[in-house]
UniProtKB/TrEMBL annotation:
Protein name in the entry: Ankyrin repeat domain-containing protein 16
Gene3D superfamilies: Ankyrin repeat-containing domain
PANTHER family: ANKYRIN REPEAT CONTAINING, ANKYRIN REPEAT DOMAIN-CONTAINING PROTEIN 16
Pfam families for the chain: Ank (PF00023), Ank_2 (PF12796), Ank_4 (PF13637)
Gene: Ankrd16
Localization (cell): Cytoplasm; Nucleus
Entry keyword annotation includes Signal: no
Keyword Nucleus: yes
Domain of life: Eukaryota
SUPFAM superfamilies: Ankyrin repeat (SSF48403)
Quaternary state and interactors: Interacts with AARS; the interaction is direct.
Physiological role: Required to prevent the misactivation of serine (Ser) with tRNA(Ala) by promoting the hydrolysis of Ser-mischarged tRNA(Ala), thereby playing a role in translational fidelity. Binds directly to the catalytic domain of AARS/AlaRS and captures Ser that is misactivated by AARS/AlaRS, preventing the charging of Ser adenylates to tRNA(Ala) and precluding Ser misincorporation in nascent peptides.
Length: 204
């Protein structure tokens, strides 16, 4: 819709004019996103505040894959937006999309530690929550080679560096090795990962 397009450009004056002329901010696109989702991705708190003022329930929305605006903001590193969403909206801690991914996992696997900390402190996120396959944030960070996130989880939060994922009991070191992330392998080993670890099929 024109309103959705205006939200991609962060133009509050145009957004306000469209709404005043009858544009419906609750309409969704084919992926289930409404204007609030789009504004959360773009990272403009002023637009989000306006949308909440004119449509207080607009935050309570999910995409077709059950991703909330909080997932979107966490994934894209929009810390000011995440702060606003935690203050003004009422998302459940560790809400999961259809793959079981939480906003905390989104922040961790994309290296947004400021947002991860915010979700822990203000939203009671669980750092060891598992996705639909049984993988934790640690394993997802190993896949995306987010060494800073791995150090944060293990050194600061005490997450088990050899914790297992999925029914195959795969440790983070296996994920890093499979993806070819040499520096992540070194990070995990420096944190005490067991280089002799075997998964549920006996693979090292």
């Amino acid at each position: 819709t024109p309103l959705m397009m205006a939200c991609t450009r962060k133009n509050l004056e145009v957004i306000r004019s469209l709404v005043e002329h009858g544009a419906n901010p609750l309409l969704r696109n084919k992926d289930g996103w409404n204007c609030f989702h789009i504004a959360s991705r773009e990272g403009h708190p002023e637009v989000l505040r306006y949308l909440l003022d004119v449509s207080p329930g607009i935050w309570d929305t999910e995409s077709t894959t059950r991703r909330t605006p909080l997932h979107t903001a966490a994934m894209h590193g929009r810390s000011r937006v995440v702060e606003l969403l935690l203050e003004r909206c009422h998302y459940q801690p560790d809400s999961r999309d259809t793959c079981g991914v939480t906003p905390f996992m989104d922040a961790i696997q994309n290296g947004h530690l400021d947002i991860a900390r915010m979700l822990l402190e203000k939203h009671q996120a669980c750092p060891t929550a598992t996705d639909a396959l049984g993988a934790q944030a640690l394993h997802r960070a190993a896949v995306t080679a987010q060494d800073g996130s791995i150090r944060f989880l293990v050194s600061e939060l005490g997450v088990d560096v050899d914790g297992r994922a999925t029914s195959l009991r795969i440790p983070a070191l296996h994920y890093a090795a499979k993806e070819g992330h040499g520096h992540t392998i070194r990070t995990l080993l420096a944190l005490g990962a067991d280089i002799q670890a075997r998964d549920g099929k006996g693979r090292s």
